[in-house]
Design brief:
Order of helices and strands of chain A: HEHEEHEHEHEHHHEHEEHHEEEEEEE
Strand content of chain A: 15-25%
Structural class of chain A: alpha+beta
CATH topology of the largest domain in chain A: Creatine Amidinohydrolase
Oligomer: homodimer
Strand order of the largest sheet of chain A: 4-3-2-1-5-6
Number of helices of chain A: 11
CATH architecture of the largest domain in chain A: Alpha-Beta Complex
Number of strands of chain A: 16
Chain lengths: 376, 376
Amino acid sequence: MLTSRIHQFRSYLEARHIDVALLWDPDNQFYMTGFRAISYSRPIVTLIDEKEIQLIIPALEEAHAAEKAAADRTYVYYEQYAFREKPLTYEEHLTGILKSYPAPCTIGIEADILPASVYQRLLDMGFQLADIGGQLTKMRSIKSADEIELLKIAGSLSDLAIGESLRHARVGVSELEFDSHGDRLLLELASRDYPDELIGYADWTCSGIQRSEMPHLYSSTRKFTNGDVVVHSRQVWFNNYRAENERTFMIGNGTEKQKDLLKLMIEAQQVGMEMIRPGISAKDVDIATFQVFDKAGYGEFVQHRTGHGLGLSEHEEPYLRFDNELILQEGMVYTIEPGIYVPGVGGFRHSDTVIITENGSFSITAYPRDFESMLF
Amino acid sequence: MLTSRIHQFRSYLEARHIDVALLWDPDNQFYMTGFRAISYSRPIVTLIDEKEIQLIIPALEEAHAAEKAAADRTYVYYEQYAFREKPLTYEEHLTGILKSYPAPCTIGIEADILPASVYQRLLDMGFQLADIGGQLTKMRSIKSADEIELLKIAGSLSDLAIGESLRHARVGVSELEFDSHGDRLLLELASRDYPDELIGYADWTCSGIQRSEMPHLYSSTRKFTNGDVVVHSRQVWFNNYRAENERTFMIGNGTEKQKDLLKLMIEAQQVGMEMIRPGISAKDVDIATFQVFDKAGYGEFVQHRTGHGLGLSEHEEPYLRFDNELILQEGMVYTIEPGIYVPGVGGFRHSDTVIITENGSFSITAYPRDFESMLF
């Protein structure tokens, strides 16, 4: 898997006359090396040229990188007193490595990710810089069969978790408790069925009229009350590959208007899920779901695009957005999540993760989406 | 709280002849405006000049920002078809706002955070750029009384969570299940005691000789076995302020050597916790804990500094590192977490979060750290 990526990436670098690619983004580095760390304040850098993959890591990742990283050479920097005579910063290694390339040297960078301070240092050193972000996005947007297998597992696990949370949907349960029921079952079942694997999750629940109207909020300790509209969002990742699964549901006695909007959103999502396939454009999907809302008189309450790519990152380009002419292809992965947010009424959004196949698509998330299943 | 920060920050900008500060980092933006969103692929930008705080946000954050952000003006960009005639990108607003400043104009940027592409665009527009990252770090490193109150709550919640996880420390429990027990209790108790607040957490458990030797790994489905050394790390945040709480424990029959190293690490941590106070330097604390390990013959197995600042971010500068001459001050917050990682034996690290007071320090995390409490 890694070998063919590296091969494809090197061909691109060669065609663009880029001598070495400097990867800063953790997801891009994982994509190329299989190594991902909890990095925070300690930068990790991957350098890829025609011959070698080189990795710069902090000392505390040395054992981890030795086990996981497909790198030809590893450079360690230290922060401990015992090694005070050794390199103490990643910059020291980076400068040394880059200076070894004969001038004039062109470095490929992720322009939307590399920090300005590093960028300026590279300019000061006299390098030519070329943006390789688009190429990485493009490669990552088409998932291989191996990646799709991981995504499918993530999707099934997310269904189990969302079902367990929904089993606890009732008055008096807080948003965070609601999340935690699904989290716990997810980790219990995953531990039983997938020994020695990496599994993670993130979830957000926005309950009540005021909070559900805001598409993206962190969960709070607010407790569900009778008449709440609740938007529950969840991502689950299996060995770093993410599925998204979101459901909007109602607690107790919602109004007729809320019920109508829930049905309308479900219809819009269905339109998107049925039409997505290779050969149509990203914009077509976005405009089609919009039109469902618009015909019903709610076009102005749509606040976001229909979906985003995903995989290693929470959101990956390209997006299902009305101004994106991109023609969809087999192997792309998208969320389908048209939503409306009506002041004084509530927010309504389901999200499912679909994989585009040769002739159509299938959803890796399968928890029921119908209206009746969303009443608690 | 925000008012005095803004006032202090404006004085700094004025003294440095910076016309406007462009904040990109979500934590810095929250620090200055009280507003924080789940942003991912949709940039949010805060601009602060001598008169106004201006905020550029995606449409889906409009209601959220109206409720939370202390901003004088808000600029919205859209991604929905219904508003296709309106501004569709943050860049459109940013360019417009920045062009309104008379030339020559100096913009303050966070050089270690701002993406290279944005930085280059500002250079192309002819602006002078000045790094304001250090000032923001400096201001954030001294916590106010209000911030300390939030940190204390985060600390107590982390104690409850870690205790509940440890209650389930036994053979056959997976790392992820172990985490989830604490998570669940945390969310249950927090929901009971703190209605309508934001609470979050992150945890990582590295079990067994091989995994505990690596200081930073995501939790896996690996199940605890007899003789495991386990390093459990946890952060809990309360209204965005984070406490860190980590314990190393043993399951069943560990070796004498493992027990000795656990005791040694506890001793090193105690040395750090007892000495940290205003007036000593960051390096002194780091070197003192190192010496505990070194005298026992384990200096070479220290892999990281003694601690990091924290608050809004997981890791905040400045660090307790042997090459940091910084004199510690009242209001600074640090983890004290000296660790050793010995191949074939295991990794050993406790972490507690301490707040420096006028005359000394206190720990906001209080779960027992002694040797006997770490045997399961």
